[in-house]
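Translate structure to sequence.
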C-alpha cells in the first residue's frame, strides 16, 4: 500500500508544469523501478507505461532522456501486453509523429528490443513491430530520415532475433534488396548492415537469392558508380557475416566479379591491403608471387610525386621552410567521375580482402583467379610508366614498387626556383599517394612476418629501400616504415636465435645477420638525419628505430647483432645529448633517449664509450634532477650502467674515472636523501647508490659515513627494504672490500630479523646478502650473531620451498666454512639444522639445487671437524629405514640419501671411504632376504661412490654387485644395474670391458647389463667425456646386434644408448644409423628412429650440423607400412619440433601430409578379440593417432609458419574431436591454440566443429561405470569446455548459429555453466 501511495505521488509530480519537478520525479521513478522488490498491479502498469511514453515527448531533453532509461527496467517489471502496447505506440511516433520526437522514439524502441529476454515476449514484439518497420522502409513517400531510423532498429532486431523471424525472411529480404538501389547513400549504407545481420539466419536458398541479386547488379554495366560501390560493400558485409556458407560456384563468381574492378584501379591502396591478406592467410600459395610483391611494395613505399630524394639533404634552414611548404602541396589529378570510379575500385578491393579473410581454406583455388589479374594490372601500369621492355614481373616485387609511389612529385623538383616553389605552395592538399606507400609498407611487413625463409632476399632487396625511406615526408607513413623495419629485425632474431654453433646451417640461417651488419652504417646515418627534424613524433619514432623502447628497433638490432653500434657511438651521442638537453624535448622523448642510452651502454664494450663519457654524463646527470619521476627513474638506471662503463673493473683500461666519481655520487645522493618522491625513484636511487659504493668506494672514503647510514635507514622502511638489502649484497660482493664497520652490526641485525618476515622475496634476498657479508666481513661479525642466524635458518629448511632451502643450506655451509666460527656454531648447526636436513633428505620432492646444497652441507659438517663422520653416516643410513608411521621411504629419497653418503665419504678422506665401501659390500654378501631395504640402499651408495671415485682397489666388487642380479626383488635388480654402471664410470678401462663381456655371455642378465651400459654412456654424454675408439667400436657392435631383439624393453635401452653415444661421437654414429634405416629388419629401423629421438636435446650439440642433411632419411620412415615405425617417427618428429625446430622446417611440406594421414581412424587396424563370454575391440591405431596429434600440437608452438591450419582443421582435427578419449584431449588443446593463433581459419569452419564438442560435453557414463571412468569423463568435459571458451573469444563467433545455440545450452545447464565459468576465469 505504501508503495502505491509513493508511486501515485511520483506520477503526479511527473505531470507537473515545473521541469525540475518532472526531472526529480522521473529520477525517483527510475530508482523505484530498479529495486528488485518493486511490483506493479495491472492498473499501475497501465499508468506507468502511459506516463513514460508521454514523458518521451517532454520539451526538456534531460527529462525525456531519463524516461528512456526508465524503459529498461520497466520492460522486465510489466506484462507482455504492456510491452507490446508501448512498442506499438513508439512505432506510431516513429512513423507518424513529429520530427523532433522521432529520434527519442527510435532510441526508446531500441531500448525495448535490447531488454527483451524471453522468447515469448520476443515473438509478440516481432509480430507487432516487423510489419510497421517494413512499412517505414518501403512505404511510398517515406522520408529518408524515417527510413534510416527504421533500418537502424531493424538491424538490431535482426541481429538479436533473426532466427525467430523465419516466416518473414523472404518479405524482409525483398524489402531490403530494393533499398540497395536507393538514391540516398545513408539508406544504402544502413541497408547493407541490415542484410548482413539477416544473412546469418537466412536459409541457403534465400542467401543464394541475395548474392545472385548483388552479382546481377554488379554485372549491369549501366549501374551508377555509387550503386556499384554499395553492391561491392554488400559482398564484403556478407563475406564477413556468413562467408563460411558460400558455396564454391558462388564464391568464384563473386571473386571474378571483384577482380574485374580491382584490376582496373589506378591509384588505390586497397589492392595492396588485399595482397596483405593473401600473404598472411595463404603464405604457401603466394610463394610464386613473393618476388613481385616485394619489389612493388618497396617501390611504392617511396612513391611521392610531390617530393624528391634530394630534398632530404636540405640544411636545417631549408628543412624549416620545407615543413611549411609540404603542407601546401596539392595536385588536382582527378575529376569527379574519375574519383567515383576510384572509390568503386577501392570498395571492391575491400570486399576482396574480406572474402580472403573469411574463406582461407579456399584461397588456393581463388588464388588462381586473383593473382594473374592483379599482376597484369601492375604490369600494365609499369608499361605506361615507360618500362614495358622489362621482363614479366615476379610477384615478390609488388611491395617494392609501391614503397616509393608518389606520382605528384618528380625527381627534379628540388631544382625549382623561388617562383616555382611559390606555385607549388598554391597546390591543394588532396595528394593521397601516401596511402599507397603506407599500404605498401604494411604489405611488406606482412611478407616479412609470413615468409621467414625469404629473409636473405629481403635483406638484399628490401632493407636498403626501407632505410632509404626513413626520409619519408608523411609522418604516418614514416612510422609504418619504422615498424616494418622493426619486424624485419625481429624476424631475423627469431630465425637465428640459438643457432650460433651450427656451422653447417650458418650458410642458410646466419646470412641475414651478416647482411644486416653491412647496413648498420646506413641505418645510423639515416636515423641521425631524422633526429635533426623538428617533429617530436618523428624524433621518437626515429630514436625507437635504434634501441629498446626507442620503438624497439635498436633493441632488436642489438639483440641480433651485439656490439653492432660500436663504430657509430660518436655519431649517436649528439642526438642523445640534444634529446636530453633541448628545452623543447617532451618527457616521452627524454625517456626514449634514456632507455636507448641504457641499453646501448649495457650491450657494448666499455672502452667504446670512454671518449664520449664527458658529453654523455652531463645530460644524464641533469636528467636525474628532472621533476617528472619517470624521467628521473630512467636517468638513475642509466647512471647505473654509466658507473659500470666508467670503471668496468678494479684495474681499469687506462681511463681516468676519478673526475666523474663525485658528480655521479652527488646527483644520486640528492635523490637518495629526498623522502618526498615516487617509490620507483627511491628504489632506483638505492640500487644505483649501492653500485656506486661498490665501484667507487675506494674514492669515497670521506662520503661513506654519510651515505651508508642512509642505506641502512632505507632497510627499515617496509617499501624500500628489499631494494636496500639487494644494494648491500652488491656492496658486499665488491672486490674493493668497502669499510662497513660503521653500519655492519646494524645491517646484520636487520637482516637476521628479515629472515622471520613473511615476504618470500625479502627472505631470499636476505639469505644471499648475508652469505656475501659473511664471506667478505666474517672476521668482523661476532659468533653470537652466527648462532642467531643459524636458529633462524632452521625454520627455512623444508621441501615446501626448495629454492629457499637451497639458499639457507648454502648460508649454513658458509658459516661452517669460516675458520673463525666458534665451536658453538657447530653445535648450533647440529642441534638446529641437522635434524631439519635429515627430515628433508627423506622427501621425494628433493632435487636440483636444493639437493646439491644438501650434499655440500654434509660435506661441510665433516670439514668443519665439529661432527663425527660415523655419527653422520649412521644418521644418513638410518633415515632410509621405514618407520611405522610413514611406512617405507620413497625411491627418489633413497637416491638422495645415496648421493649424500657418497659426498660424505669423499669429504672424510680415503680411509673412511674405503671402510664405508667395505661395510656396504658386507651388506650385499648377506643372503638374508629380510635385508632387501639395506641391500637396495647399499647398492645405490656404492654406485654413487663409484661414480666419484675409482673403486678398483676393492677386489671383485663388480662380481659382488652383479650377484644382486639374482635377487627376487625388482628394485634390487634395478639398483644393482645402476650401481654397476656408475662404478664403471669411475674406471672405464677396467669395468667397461667387463660389462660388454657380460652382455655377450649372460643372456638372462642382458636387459640389466644394458641398463648398466646406458648409465655409463649417459654419464659420459652429460660430462662431455669421450670413449676410446676401441671401446666405441665394441659398444656399437654390441648395440647394433641387439637392435633386433624380440624384447621391446631391450630395444628401447639400446636406442637410448645409441642416441647418447651419438652426442659423444656424432661423426661415427649418424652415418651408421642412416645405413640401418634401409635394413630389412623392422625392429632395427624402429630402433634407429628412436635413437635419433634421444640424440636431439635442447642445448646446441655437435650432432646438429652433422645430422641436419640426413634428417629426412630418419623421419621419412613415417611412410613405412609397419605401424611401429610410424609411431616412432611421429615421436621423433615431435622431439625435433620441440628441441630443434629449425632443423626440420624445410621438410615439413613433405612430412605434414604424412603426419596428418596418421590422425585418421583406419579400419584395418581395428580388430576384434574373442574372449569367450564377450568380445573385445582393440584399436591398434589409437596410439598412432594420439602421437600424431601430440606432434601437431608441438608443431603449432614451434613451426606455426609452416602449418596450414585450414587444411588441417577439416577433416583431420574434426575427426579427432569425435575420436577416443585419449585422442580428444590433445585435439581440444590444439583447437584452443588455433583459436588463439589462427582465429580466421577456425571461424571459417566453426559450424562443423560444434557437433563433436556438443556430443562430448553431453556424454554421460553408464550407471555402473567405475570411478576411474567417471573421473576421465569429467576431465574430458572440462577439456572440451576449455576449447569452447577459446572459441568464444574469437571475434565474429556469434555469426555461427550452432555455436550460439551451444553457448545457450551451456548457460542453461547449471552443472556445465559452473564448470565453464571456472575455466573461463582461470
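Result:
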Amino acid at each position: 500500500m505504501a508503495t502505491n501511495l509513493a508511486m501515485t505521488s511520483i506520477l503526479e509530480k511527473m505531470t507537473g508544469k515545473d521541469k525540475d519537478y518532472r526531472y526529480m520525479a522521473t529520477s525517483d521513478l527510475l530508482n523505484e523501478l530498479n529495486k528488485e522488490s518493486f511490483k506493479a498491479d495491472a492498473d499501475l502498469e497501465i499508468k506507468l507505461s502511459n506516463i513514460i511514453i508521454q514523458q518521451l515527448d517532454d520539451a526538456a531533453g534531460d527529462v525525456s532522456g531519463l524516461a528512456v532509461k526508465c524503459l529498461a527496467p520497466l520492460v522486465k517489471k510489466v506484462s507482455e501486453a504492456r510491452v507490446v502496447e508501448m512498442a506499438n505506440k513508439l512505432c506510431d511516433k516513429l512513423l507518424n509523429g513529429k520530427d523532433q520526437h522521432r529520434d527519442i522514439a527510435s532510441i526508446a524502441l531500441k531500448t525495448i528490443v535490447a531488454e527483451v529476454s524471453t522468447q515469448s515476449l520476443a515473438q509478440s514484439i516481432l509480430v507487432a513491430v516487423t510489419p510497421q518497420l517494413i512499412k517505414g522502409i518501403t512505404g511510398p513517400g517515406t522520408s529518408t530520415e524515417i527510413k534510416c531510423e527504421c533500418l537502424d532498429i531493424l538491424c538490431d532486431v535482426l541481429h538479436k532475433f533473426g532466427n525467430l523471424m523465419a516466416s518473414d525472411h523472404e518479405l524482409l529480404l525483398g524489402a531490403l534488396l530494393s533499398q540497395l538501389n536507393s538514391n540516398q547513400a545513408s539508406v544504402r549504407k544502413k541497408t547493407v548492415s541490415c542484410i548482413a545481420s539477416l544473412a546469418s539466419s537466412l536459409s541457403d536458398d534465400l542467401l543464394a537469392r541475395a548474392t545472385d541479386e548483388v552479382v546481377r547488379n554488379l554485372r549491369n554495366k549501366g549501374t551508377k558508380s555509387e550503386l556499384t560501390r554499395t553492391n561491392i560493400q554488400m559482398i564484403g558485409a556478407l563475406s564477413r557475416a556468413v562467408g563460411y556458407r558460400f558455396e564454391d560456384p558462388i564464391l568464384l563468381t563473386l571473386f571474378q566479379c571483384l577482380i574485374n574492378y580491382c584490376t582496373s584501379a589506378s591509384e588505390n591502396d586497397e589492392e595492396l591491403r588485399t595482397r596483405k591478406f593473401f600473404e598472411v592467410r595463404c603464405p604457401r600459395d603466394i610463394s610464386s608471387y613473393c618476388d613481385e610483391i616485394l619489389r612493388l611494395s618497396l617501390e611504392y613505399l617511396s612513391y611521392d610525386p610531390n617530393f624528391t630524394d634530394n630534398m632530404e639533404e636540405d640544411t636545417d634552414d631549408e628543412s624549416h621552410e620545407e615543413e611549411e611548404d609540404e603542407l601546401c602541396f596539392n595536385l588536382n589529378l582527378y575529376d569527379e567521375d574519375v574519383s567515383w570510379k576510384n572509390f568503386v575500385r577501392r570498395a571492391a578491393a575491400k570486399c576482396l580482402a574480406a572474402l580472403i579473410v573469411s574463406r582461407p581454406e579456399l584461397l588456393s583455388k581463388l588464388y588462381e583467379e586473383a593473382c594473374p589479374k592483379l599482376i597484369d594490372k601492375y604490369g600494365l601500369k609499369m608499361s605506361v610508366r615507360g618500362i614495358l621492355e622489362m621482363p614479366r614481373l615476379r610477384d615478390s616485387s609488388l611491395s617494392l614498387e609501391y614503397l616509393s609511389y608518389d606520382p605528384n612529385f618528380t625527381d627534379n623538383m628540388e631544382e625549382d626556383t623561388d617562383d616555382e616553389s611559390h606555385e607549388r605552395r598554391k597546390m591543394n592538399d588532396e595528394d593521397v599517394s601516401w596511402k599507397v606507400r603506407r599500404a605498401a609498407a604494411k604489405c611488406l611487413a606482412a611478407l616479412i612476418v609470413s615468409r621467414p625463409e625469404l629473409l636473405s632476399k629481403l635483406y638484399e632487396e628490401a632493407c636498403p629501400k626501407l632505410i632509404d625511406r626513413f626520409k619519408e615526408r608523411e609522418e604516418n607513413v614514416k612510422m609504418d616504415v619504422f615498424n616494418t623495419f622493426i619486424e624485419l629485425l625481429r624476424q631475423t632474431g627469431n630465425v637465428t636465435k640459438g643457432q650460433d654453433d651450427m656451422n653447417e646451417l650458418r650458410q642458410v640461417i646466419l646470412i641475414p645477420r651478416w647482411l644486416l651488419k653491412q647496413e648498420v652504417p646506413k641505418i645510423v646515418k639515416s636515423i641521425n638525419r631524422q633526429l635533426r627534424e623538428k617533429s617530436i613524433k618523428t624524433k621518437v619514432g626515429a630514436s625507437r628505430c635504434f634501441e629498446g623502447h626507442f620503438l624497439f628497433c635498436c633493441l632488436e638490432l642489438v639483440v641480433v647483432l651485439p656490439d653492432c653500434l660500436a663504430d657509430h657511438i660518436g655519431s649517436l651521442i649528439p642526438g642523445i645529448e640534444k634529446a636530453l638537453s633541448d628545452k623543447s624535448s617532451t618527457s616521452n622523448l627524454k625517456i626514449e633517449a634514456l632507455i636507448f642510452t641504457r641499453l646501448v651502454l649495457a650491450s657494448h664494450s666499455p672502452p667504446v664509450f670512454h671518449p664520449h663519457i664527458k658529453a654523455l654524463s652531463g645530460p644524464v646527470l641533469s636528467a636525474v634532477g628532472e621533476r617528472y619521476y619517470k624521467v628521473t627513474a630512467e636517468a638513475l638506471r642509466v647512471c647505473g650502467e654509466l658507473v659500470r662503463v666508467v670503471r668496468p673493473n678494479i684495474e681499469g683500461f687506462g681511463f681516468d674515472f676519478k673526475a666523474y666519481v663525485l658528480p655521479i655520487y652527488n646527483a644520486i645522493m640528492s635523490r637518495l636523501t629526498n623522502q618526498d618522491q615516487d617509490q620507483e625513484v627511491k628504489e632506483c636511487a638505492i640500487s644505483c647508490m649501492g653500485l656506486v659504493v661498490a665501484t667507487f668506494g675506494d674514492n669515497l672514503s670521506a662520503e661513506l659515513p654519510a651515505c651508508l647510514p642512509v642505506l641502512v635507514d632505507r632497510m627499515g622502511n617496509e617499501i624500500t627494504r628489499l631494494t636496500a638489502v639487494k644494494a648491500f649484497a652488491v656492496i658486499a660482493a665488491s672486490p674493493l672490500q668497502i669499510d662497513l664497520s660503521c653500519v655492519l652490526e646494524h645491517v646484520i641485525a636487520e637482516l637476521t630479523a628479515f629472515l622471520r618476515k613473511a615476504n618470500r622475496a625479502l627472505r631470499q634476498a636476505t639469505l644471499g646478502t648475508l652469505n656475501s657479508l659473511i664471506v667478505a666481513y666474517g672476521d668482523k661479525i661476532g659468533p653470537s650473531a652466527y648462532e642467531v642466524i643459524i636458529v633462524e635458518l632452521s625454520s627455512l629448511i623444508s621441501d615446501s620451498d626448495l629454492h629457499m632451502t637451497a639458499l639457507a643450506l648454502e648460508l649454513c655451509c658458509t658459516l661452517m666454512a669460516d675458520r673463525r666460527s666458534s665451536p658453538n656454531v657447530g653445535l648450533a648447526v647440529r642441534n638446529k639444522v641437522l635434524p631439519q636436513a635429515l627430515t628433508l633428505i627423506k622427501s621425494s620432492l628433493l632435487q636440483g639445487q636444493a639437493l646439491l646444497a644438501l650434499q655440500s652441507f654434509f660435506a661441510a659438517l665433516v670439514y668443519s671437524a665439529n661432527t663425527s663422520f660415523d655419527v653422520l653416516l649412521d644418521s644418513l643410513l638410518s633415515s632410509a629405514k621405514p618407520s611405522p608411521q610413514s611406512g617405507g621411504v620413497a625411491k627418489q629419497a633413497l637416491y638422495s640419501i645415496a648421493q649424500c653418503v657418497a659426498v660424505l665419504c669423499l669429504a672424510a678422506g680415503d680411509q673412511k671411504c674405503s671402510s664405508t665401501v667395505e661395510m656396504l659390500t658386507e651388506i650385499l654378501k648377506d643372503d638374508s632376504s629380510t635385508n632387501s631395504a639395506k641391500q637396495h640402499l647399499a647398492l645405490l651408495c656404492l654406485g654413487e661412490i663409484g661414480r666419484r671415485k675409482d673403486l678398483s682397489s676393492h677386489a671383485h666388487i663388480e662380481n659382488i654387485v652383479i650377484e644382486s642380479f639374482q635377487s627376487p626383488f625388482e628394485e634390487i635388480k634395478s639398483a644393482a644395474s645402476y650401481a654397476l654402471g656408475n662404478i664403471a664410470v669411475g674406471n672405464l678401462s677396467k669395468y667397461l670391458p667387463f660389462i660388454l663381456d657380460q652382455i655377450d655371455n649372460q643372456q638372462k642378465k642382458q636387459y640389466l647389463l644394458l641398463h648398466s651400459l646406458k648409465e655409463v654412456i649417459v654419464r659420459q654424454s652429460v660430462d662431455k667425456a669421450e670413449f676410446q675408439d676401441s671401446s666405441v667400436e665394441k659398444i656399437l657392435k654390441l648395440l647394433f646386434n641387439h637392435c633386433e631383439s624380440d624384447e621391446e624393453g631391450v630395444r628401447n635401452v639400446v636406442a637410448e644408448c645409441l642416441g647418447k653415444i651419438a652426442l659423444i661421437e656424432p661423426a661415427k654414429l649418424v652415418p651408421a644409423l642412416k645405413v640401418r634405416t634401409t635394413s630389412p629388419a623392422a625392429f632395427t629401423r624402429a630402433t634407429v628412429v628412436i635413437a635419433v629421438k634421444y640424440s636431439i636435446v635442447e642445448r646446441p650439440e655437435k650432432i646438429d650440423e652433422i645430422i641436419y642433411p640426413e634428417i629426412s632419411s630418419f623421419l621419412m620412415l613415417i611412410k613405412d607400412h609397419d605401424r611401429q615405425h610410424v609411431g616412432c617417427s611421429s615421436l621423433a618428429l615431435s622431439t625435433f619440433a620441440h628441441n630443434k625446430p629449425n632443423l626440420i622446417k624445410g621438410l615439413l611440406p613433405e612430412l605434414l601430409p604424412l603426419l596428418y594421414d596418421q590422425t585418421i581412424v583406419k579400419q584395418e587396424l581395428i580388430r576384434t578379440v574373442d574372449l569367450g563370454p564377450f568380445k573385445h575391440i582393440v584399436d591398434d591405431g589409437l596410439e598412432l593417432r594420439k602421437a600424431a596429434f601430440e606432434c601437431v600440437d608441438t608443431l603449432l608452438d614451434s613451426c606455426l609458419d609452416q602449418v596450414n591450419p585450414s587444411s588441417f582443421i577439416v577433416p583431420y582435427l574434426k575427426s579427432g574431436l569425435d575420436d577416443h578419449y585419449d585422442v580428444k584431449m590433445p585435439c581440444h588443446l590444439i583447437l584452443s591454440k588455433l583459436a588463439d593463433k589462427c582465429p580466421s581459419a577456425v571461424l571459417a569452419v566453426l559450424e562443423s566443429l560444434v557437433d563433436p564438442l556438443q556430443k562430448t560435453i553431453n556424454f554421460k557414463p553408464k550407471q555402473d561405470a567405475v570411478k576411474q571412468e567417471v573421473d576421465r569423463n569429467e576431465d574430458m568435459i572440462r577439456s572440451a569446455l576449455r576449447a569452447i571458451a577459446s572459441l568464444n573469444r574469437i571475434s565474429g563467433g556469434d555469426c555461427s548459429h550452432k555455436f550460439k545455440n551451444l553457448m545457450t545450452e551451456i548457460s542453461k545447464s547449471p552443472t556445465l555453466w559452473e564448470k565453464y565459468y571456472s575455466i573461463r576465469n582461470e
